[in-house]
Specification:
mainly alpha; Arc Repressor Mutant, subunit A; Tetracycline Repressor, domain 2; 2 domains; 9 helices; 65% helix; elongated
């Protein structure tokens, strides 16, 4: 069995500083942001960046993979709260709002990446959210025409950067929109909606290389 390589504390710290700087740079300037600038913002030299990530593609892949992993982990947590599906979905969305600076994803304007590990996370995200919705349909707390695509796209909308607002104000506004959305999950006086795209249609668009 091959054991994962454990980085020294300073190497692990430098790696995380680089990823944090890269996420900010990619959100603000796109994936063409100069790697020299990313290294400088991280407080490391460019050689250190290249030791951790041999090229731009490797850095972009890790940033996107980390974002998908974060979302998947949050759906797993939501799935643990099937006794209260509404609370589970609300908690999922609010936690993503709190960590939106870590999300560099195609639905948020991030790059599309062809990668088997990323592709494997996408159906699990959908399946975990469908499990929560199924529990809500079963107990009558959630309307029967919602799909995982509705939750995924709602999370992208509330997590989009708001560059002209202070961080606290943007977070408060996003939280308000989460509460409005969650109220709309419930079947009371619900209006029928147009058909949603399927998850396969959504991911086919997301996974299409630029």
């Amino acid at each position: 069995m091959v054991r994962p390589i454990r980085l020294r504390a300073d190497a692990a710290r430098n790696r995380e500083l680089i990823l944090t700087a890269a996420r900010a740079a990619f959100r603000e300037r796109g994936i063409a942001a100069p790697l020299d600038d990313i290294a400088r913002e991280a407080g490391v030299n460019i050689a250190t960046l290249y030791r951790r990530f041999p090229d731009r593609g490797a850095l972009i892949r890790q940033v996107v993979l980390d974002a998908y992993t974060l979302v998947c982990n949050e759906t797993r947590l939501a799935k643990e709260d099937l006794a209260d599906p509404i609370r589970a979905i609300e908690g999922f969305l609010l936690r993503l709002v709190d960590r939106r600076d870590q999300l560099v994803l195609p639905l948020l304007g991030g790059p599309t990446i062809e990668d088997a590990e990323i592709f494997a996370l996408q159906p699990e995200i959908a399946a975990n959210l469908e499990a929560v919705l199924a529990a809500g349909r079963a107990d009558g707390s959630i309307r029967d025409d919602l799909t995982s695509v509705d939750i995924i796209t709602a999370s992208a909308l509330v997590c989009r950067p708001m560059p002209h607002l202070a961080t606290a104000e943007a977070g408060a506004l996003a939280a308000r929109h989460v509460h409005i959305f969650v109220d709309g999950l419930q079947p009371v006086r619900a209006r029928r909606m147009p058909a949603a795209p399927t998850h396969s249609a959504l991911t086919a668009h997301v996974n299409r290389p630029d």
